[in-house]
Amino acid sequence: MTENKLRLGPLPKTETVRFSFNCSKALLAELEAYAALHTQIYDEPTDAATLAPHMLEAFMARDRAFRKRRAAHAPQRDG
Fold this sequence. Notes:
This protein has 79 residues and is mainly alpha-helical. It has helices at residues 25-42, 48-62, 64-72. It has a domain at 46-72. The longest helix is centred in the middle third of the chain and has 18 residues, at 25-42. It is elongated. 1% of the residues are buried. This is DUF2274 domain-containing protein. InterPro entries: DUF2274. It holds the Pfam family DUF2274.
C-alpha cells in the first residue's frame, strides 16, 4: 500500500514536552483511525497522542496568514 502515502509522512524523532488537551470523541476516533493507517503504511507503531503534535505542526507550517503575521512581528536582528 505504498502508493497511497499519507500527507503526514513518517514521523521525525523529536524532543517532546507534555501537553494535553480535550477533544471530542469523534475527533479521537478519527485520530486513532489515522494512527492505525499510519502504522500500516509506514510499518512503525504509533498512536493518536504521538500523531497529534505532528499534525498541528504541519497545519501551522502551512498556514500562510500565521506565518506572515509571525514574521511581521518577529524581532529585527542586527547584522
